Amino acid sequence: MNERCMAGLHFFDLVTAANLPHVDHPPREPAAQLDALRRKFEELYAPSHALRAAFQKLHTLDPVKIIEGKG
Length: 71
Known about the structure:
About 60% of the residues lie in helices and about 0% in strands. The model has no long low-confidence stretch (mean pLDDT about 85). It has one domain (about 1-15, about 30-70). It has helices at about 5, 10-20, 30-45, 50-60, 60-65.
């Protein structure tokens, strides 16, 4: 089993579950879309959110430490 699996990091599942808004079409109301994006960012950036926790855990993996020059 590789280190990524042992660490339990499942970024694709977490991103899918986050239900990110589509931004590929120009918004009719840019201010409303910006507000929705800001709310989604605040939700994902919360210390208790699983995606943020996974990104923080990512920095503890040896390959990432090596790439960052910390290992």
